[in-house]
User: Which sequence fits this backbone?
């Protein structure tokens, strides 16, 4: 993977002005919402959106409850900052870029939800405790702990995301992606909801879970009926 660089090239190609404003404001609103819903605390967590060959990210060190559209940072797919700013891109830029390279993602969200972290510290995989796990590709794998912002963490999470749209990160948090920012946010909230169900089940000795074959049947039925339990934004 290419190294992350900083500084603006002399002939930087900016995003279309209208697109840039919409993307930045959308990221700020989504970040504020994640903080308000308790999925992040302080400067933890980060979000990004891909627009063609550009990636717009929340800035490093920003409190997501207060982050603004003007603070967003634009990079290319190699991590080079391509629009002048006093801010640095998120410390998890490597992870975001790898997800964009290896999937069809157009938005990535990383958060530190309490239930998700608790489950990631207990098991190697969050089993399908509800049929909505089909929306994420199945049971959610847990990436082993690695230091934030490193290639090791990026590789571990990328592996956990194989054929999945979300993953848990031990002693750290969770990540999800989608073809819209709204979908990525809803998926990360869904993971935490499933994690909360699992913790309640585990507290009383466990319970029934769904197999991958059962989830495939759920996905087929949903496709046939045009049904989705979460909004398609």
Assistant:
């Amino acid at each position: 993977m290419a190294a992350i660089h900083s500084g603006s090239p002399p002939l930087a190609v900016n995003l279309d002005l209208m697109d840039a404003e919409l993307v930045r404001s959308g990221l700020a609103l989504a970040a504020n919402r994640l903080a308000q819903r308790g999925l992040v605390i302080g400067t933890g967590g980060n979000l990004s959106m891909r627009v063609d060959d550009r990636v717009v990210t929340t800035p490093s060190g920003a409190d997501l409850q207060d982050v603004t559209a003007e603070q967003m940072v634009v990079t290319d797919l190699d991590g080079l900052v391509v629009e002048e700013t006093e801010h640095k891109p998120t410390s998890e830029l490597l992870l975001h870029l790898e997800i964009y390279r290896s999937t069809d993602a157009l938005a990535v969200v990383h958060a530190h939800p309490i239930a998700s972290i608790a489950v990631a510290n207990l098991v190697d995989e969050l089993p399908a405790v509800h049929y909505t796990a089909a929306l994420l590709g199945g049971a959610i794998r847990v990436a082993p702990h690695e230091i934030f912002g490193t290639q090791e963490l990026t590789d571990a999470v990328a592996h956990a995301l194989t054929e999945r749209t979300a993953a848990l990160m031990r002693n750290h948090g969770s990540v999800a992606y989608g073809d819209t920012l709204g979908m990525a946010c809803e998926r990360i909230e869904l993971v935490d909801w499933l994690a909360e169900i699992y913790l309640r089940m585990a507290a009383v000795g466990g319970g029934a879970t769904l197999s991958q074959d059962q989830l495939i049947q759920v996905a087929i039925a949903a496709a046939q009926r045009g049904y989705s339990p979460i909004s398609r934004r």
